[in-house]
Write a structure and sequence with these properties.
Helices cover about 40% and strands about 5% of the residues. The strands form 3 sheets. A 3-stranded antiparallel β-sheet has the order 2-4-5, covered by helices on one side. The protein has about 400 residues and is mainly α. α8 crosses α10. Among the domains are: about 200 residues, Orthogonal Bundle (Lysozyme), CATH 1.10.530; about 50 residues. The chain starts with about 55 loop residues before the first helix and ends in a 12-residue tail after the last helix. The chain contains 13 helices and 7 strands. A hairpin with a 2-residue loop joins β4 and β5.
């Protein structure tokens, strides 16, 4: 370039010379004079605004969806909060409370304390006293009240087992209470059977006690029950209940107190007798016993309180949900049976139905060399179907309809 031309005006139509940045000095960055790039505009074009990123849009949608489901779940939990396990504690004829018991419903208490978000857990009221087998039992003594409290609370909140007990009781209480009454044994002792087996007629303990009254093999034989590989009459509800009556009456005649007899049923009468002598006690309530026996009597009377009116503790059972008594035809057998399977088919029932109706049968055959007479139950057809079995209710306090 001619230095003399630098002050001349540019010729019309000519292009200006290209911009030549000055050479960078040793302490200057080469890009120093470059025009700045527009912020958030990677093109440098001010007329094209930046577009939102795809990740941000997806994140906003996801947050909105999660918030919606969280709110919906909270609404469902509030609407489905369960009702109280008990609505009231009324007195019964032989269970005395110091004052009438009023229990708030779950919704009442939850709404006042927890804004309806939590259900209440209600502790049962312990009576001042009650009658059991005609004997007065007082709970003013702290240890007596707490022992009953433990068993009653466990019964009420062991809902699965306790619900089955109510249902089974409708089937078996009519049989058990009649036999107890016919043998001059207090009907309250039906609750001893509940404590022993939960009214599971096929119950078998790890120690080998069997049936609804949980007789050991030797004790069963002592009370005229046949126990072998072919027949085990501990599972015969009628015969085992008669045997239990004999056992209970025998020891009541010795001790004169049903609480002592019940405790002895659990640990053995000899054990109770020796403990009374060794500890110089006049009452079984004053004995230091093993944990299970110490709790046993209180478990029995807890079942009496509970089964007197389960509705008080929140149990909602309908008539058609109770297990119905089963009606049978009785067939006598006094000869050997080579095959119970064939025998059942000849009586228009299955082998499974035969064993269910007669749990004392323990094998597929019966030698019966002695010619003993056995009464075999054959369930009537109508008793095998819900549509024809009917809806008998032993205790109206067990149902809500």
């Amino acid at each position: 370039m001619n230095p003399n031309d630098k002050n001349k005006p540019p010729v019309a139509g000519s292009q200006p010379p290209p911009f030549q940045p000055p050479a960078a000095s040793s302490n200057t960055v080469a890009q120093e004079n470059q025009p700045p790039v527009a912020e958030n505009n990677i093109t440098g074009d001010e007329n094209n605004p930046p577009k939102p990123k795809g990740g941000a849009t997806f994140r906003n949608i996801l947050i909105a969806v999660l918030a919606f489901f969280a709110i919906a779940q909270l609404i469902i939990l509030i609407l489905m909060a369960p009702k109280s396990c008990a609505s009231s504690h009324d007195t019964t004829d032989d269970i005395a409370y110091s004052t009438p018991q009023k229990v708030e419903t779950t919704n009442e208490r939850a709404s006042s304390n927890f804004d309806g978000k939590l259900a209440s857990v209600l502790a049962p009221e312990i009576p001042d006293s009650m009658k059991f087998c005609g004997e007065n039992v007082a709970f003013d003594r702290i240890d007596m009240a707490e022992r009953l409290d433990r068993e009653l609370t466990g019964t009420i909140y062991g809902q699965t087992n306790s619900t089955f007990i109510i249902k089974r009781a409708n089937r078996y209480f009519p049989i058990l209470t009649k036999i107890l009454k016919d043998n001059n044994v207090p009907e309250d002792l039906v609750y001893l059977a509940v404590a022993e087996s939960s009214l599971n007629i096929k119950a078998l303990s790890p120690a080998g006690a069997a049936g609804i009254w949980q007789f050991m093999p030797s004790t069963g034989r002592d009370y005229e029950l046949e126990v072998n590989e072919f027949v085990d009459e501990r599972y015969d509800i009628e015969k085992s209940t008669v045997a239990a009556c004999k056992f209970l009456k025998k020891y009541y005649s010795k001790f004169g107190n049903w609480a002592t007899v019940c405790s002895g049923y659990n640990v053995g009468m000899a054990g109770i007798d020796s403990s009374l002598v060794r500890q110089k006690a006049n009452s079984v309530f004053d004995l230091r016993l093993n944990e299970e026996t110490s709790r046993y009597y209180f478990r029995i009377i807890a079942y009496k309180i509970f089964l007197s009116d389960p509705k008080r503790f929140g149990y909602q059972i309908k008539e058609n949900q109770l297990y119905q008594p089963i009606e049978y035809d009785i067939e006598t057998v006094d000869t050997p049976v080579d095959s119970w399977v064939t025998w059942a088919q000849g009586h228009d029932i299955t082998y499974a139905q035969l064993r269910e109706a007669n749990p004392w049968i323990r094998s597929t055959r019966l030698p019966n060399d002695s010619g003993k007479v056995y009464k075999v139950k054959i369930p009537k057809h109508d008793s095998l179907y819900r549509s024809t079995a009917g809806n008998e209710v032993f205790n109206r306090n067990w149902v809500v309809d």
